[in-house]
Specification:
heterodimer; A: six-stranded mixed sheet; four-stranded antiparallel sheet; 12 strands; 0% helix; B: 114 residues; mainly beta; seven-stranded mixed sheet; 50% strand
Chain lengths: 114, 114
């Protein structure tokens, strides 16, 4: 069975601080994909990143970076120099190869305080 | 290019009624998936359709059904509505079945059952 755990329900940081959102996953498949989505108050899920199970390279995109570690089944997301516009709910998700079903975590509500 | 569109945006129904939600995928996308997101939770997979055939089904009762049309748009039907069906219903489209491409989500339909 697949499972995604986001232990942090809510996080609040002051603007310009760095913040890391944790994600731990479980799957029996050897080939899978991990995702992060952002959900602003409008409700639409915005795709941020996809990482394949066979590619453990960390990735940086502007102020965003992702740390994928298969040894600990974790796929953490760091926002550097946070901004108020980063306030949203962030979801980590898992999808097994050949399957369209996304298994989501319960999300982390991030609030950036001006 | 237009993204995934869903209609209606909001809907209020009474217990026992039925509801039909509609989704138009991104042009060229042949796979459509439906998710239910209860307040405070992550989205839960309901159905996936590809080339008009059901390719995946989540753990939802038979009151939930869906179909995909020749133009790849899709409908989600829910019969005998319960209070617990109140949620944001999200539609996502992707290019192919089981491809590595990410799913793109629509803005959702917020259903309230009273």
């Amino acid at each position: 069975a697949q499972k995604v755990t986001q232990a942090q329900t809510e996080i609040s940081v002051v603007e310009k601080e760095d913040v890391t959102l944790d994600c731990v996953y479980e799957t029996r498949d050897t080939t899978y994909y991990l995702f992060w989505y952002k959900q602003p108050p409008s409700g639409e899920l915005v795709f941020l990143i996809r990482r394949n199970s066979f590619d453990e390279q960390n990735e940086i995109s502007g102020r965003y970076s992702w740390n994928f570690q298969k040894s600990t089944s974790s796929f953490n997301f760091t926002i550097t120099a946070s901004q108020v516009v980063d306030s949203a709910v962030y979801f980590c998700a898992l999808r097994n190869f050949g399957n369209e079903k996304l298994t989501f975590g319960t999300g982390t509500r991030l609030t950036i305080i001006p | 290019d237009a993204g995934v569109t869903q209609s209606p945006t909001h809907l209020i129904k009474t217990r026992g009624q039925h509801v039909t939600l509609r989704c138009s995928p991104i042009s060229g996308h042949k796979s459509v998936s439906w998710y239910q997101q209860v307040l405070g939770q992550g989205p839960q997979f309901i159905f996936q359709y590809y080339e008009k055939e059901e390719r995946g089904r989540g753990n939802f009762p038979d009151r939930f059904s869906a179909r995909q049309f020749p133009n790849y748009s899709s409908e989600l039907n829910v019969n005998a509505l319960l209070l617990g069906d109140s949620a944001l219903y999200l539609c996502a489209s992707s290019l192919l079945q089981g491809s590595v491409d990410e799913q793109y989500f629509g803005p959702g339909t917020r259903l309230t059952v009273t």
